[in-house]
């Protein structure tokens, strides 16, 4: 940004060589071991490239964690529509432009929070097998944490469903889509293990997840009562399971 100011070689040489009529006293080199020599030879330790990179990585991780925590708390307090990136930046104690370095849009900021929350939900509930109660009950147990979030925060759930199904591409959304795909794969594996057709089980798993999102959002639009969520999800799973041939 700033241009370096370099003197011509001739000017540098002239300034370094005293003129013959100069009356300025010549400074002699300090004797090793004297205080003056100690001051001149002391050097500040220089951080290595690895140290600098590690410090930058820690600073980035700290800022991201603060932005994530601020967005998560605001989504719970005021909801997606009233949440602003300016307030997120204020709570995270970062510049407004810094927020956009981690989430370039408000929707991506939402997806950052969703990925953080859903990662634990998916990892904690992915099944090894159908377990007790059969496929239907296990699938419903998989969906229950997401259904609970939708019941607690219906406005946010509607936006999440819209972004997962129809949102613009983005790195945070892509991570959420990958989590959803992992959930679908787990459900399909359950259906196949229970005797379902392999191809139809994949279709059924997709129907359960995407249809489940739409069913949960029906309560937000007033097309269904909140109390009917569990029954409607159960009906959806029944249809999908039978369609897979289980």
From TrEMBL:
PROSITE patterns: HTH_TETR_2 (PS50977). Keywords: DNA-binding. InterPro entries: Homeodomain-like_sf (IPR009057), HTH-type_TetR-like_transc_reg (IPR050109), HTH_TetR (IPR001647). Gene3D superfamilies: Tetracycline Repressor, domain 2 (1.10.357.10). Signal peptide: none annotated. Pfam families: TetR_N. Residues 61-121 form the HTH tetR-type domain. Residues 1-63 are annotated as: Disordered. Residues 84-103 bind DNA. Residues 1-25 have a biased composition (Low complexity). The keyword Oxidoreductase does not apply. This is TetR/AcrR family transcriptional regulator.
